[in-house]
Write a structure and sequence with these properties.
This protein has 255 residues and is an alpha/beta fold. The protein has helices at 16-23, 44-49, 62-71, 107-116, 130-137, 147-155, 194-206, 212-215, 228-234, 243-254, and strands at 12-13, 32-36, 54-58, 79-80, 96-101, 123-129, 156-164, 169-170, 177-184. The strands form two sheets. A seven-stranded mixed sheet has the order 4-3-2-5-6-9-7. The chain has a two-stranded antiparallel ribbon with strand order 1-8. The model has no long low-confidence stretch (mean pLDDT 93).
């Protein structure tokens, strides 16, 4: 067993039944699959054993890389010793699904990277800290609803699949985990300036206790009287707005 690198925030899965269950969550439509942070390879071996899949693995821990090569000879040529967050993904055949038991401290960064490659990633199956998974899957109106909730829901359908106990990891984390699924929706382009949409969402949630009228004060066009529908949105707080309402707000801000 390789020793986890604590600075990577990795807790290695050791339950074979759960590993098979996670792999089984992949849809039958995917062929190319990217696993992020395979560690000891408990998910990797099931990806390698499936003749219908063409897997790739991103791992930056040297000790883990050596272990994977020793235990799974078939991984040779598929194991990429680079940081997924910084790597050039143009060499991965698209579309590709993404799967992994993600290190807690970079899980949000992984999701922002997925957003960058949203047109290449039809599906993601990921293990997250339970609190993060709940936040991602939360609907409008929830206190857990936040920036990632909105941005991901703009491009993906999100499903909270199941909760995972601490005992199935080594070393066991102090919190529960959860597996969620992201499926790319049919939205090709938002009906607004997408950069402004992103800025509007981030600005709104950075001051989430304020009404949007106050949180977006520096972005609201001067000297204009909003239509009644926009007036109603500006009287709400960020956590109350759906993706469609944020799109509407971004269109108003752009005027």
């Amino acid at each position: 067993m390789i020793r986890p690198k604590k600075h990577l925030g990795q807790h290695f899965l050791r339950d074979e039944n759960l590993a098979r269950k996670i792999i089984g969550c992949l849809s039958g439509d995917v062929i190319n699959v990217v696993e992020i942070g395979p560690g000891t390879g408990i998910l990797s071996k099931y990806l390698l054993e499936n003749p219908a899949l063409n897997p790739f693995f991103f791992e930056i821990d040297n000790e883990a890389v050596m272990y994977l090569h020793q235990q799974y000879p078939g991984i040779s040529g598929k194991l990429i010793e680079k940081d997924f967050l910084k790597a050039d993904l143009s060499g991965i055949p698209a579309p590709f699904a993404v799967i992994g038991n993600f290190p807690y401290n970079i899980s949000s960064q992984i999701l922002f990277r997925i957003l960058e490659y949203r047109n290449s990633v039809p599906e993601l199956i990921g293990m997250f800290q339970k609190e993060v998974a709940e936040r991602i899957a939360s609907p409008p109106g929830s206190k857990k609803y936040g920036i990632l909730s909105v941005l991901l829901k703009a491009w993906f359908d999100i499903e909270y699949l199941f909760t995972v106990n601490e005992s199935v990891f080594y070393p066991p984390p102090k919190v529960k985990s959860a597996v969620i699924r992201l499926l790319r929706n049919q939205v090709k382009k938002l009906d607004c300036n997408e950069e402004l949409f992103l800025l509007t969402v981030k600005t709104a949630f950075n001051q989430r206790r304020k009404t949007l009228r106050n949180a977006l004060k520096g972005m609201i066009p001067a000297g204009t009287t909003p239509l009644p529908g926009i007036q109603a949105l500006l009287d709400k707080r960020a956590e109350q707005l759906s993706v469609a309402e944020f799109v509407e707000l971004a269109r108003y801000v752009e005027r």
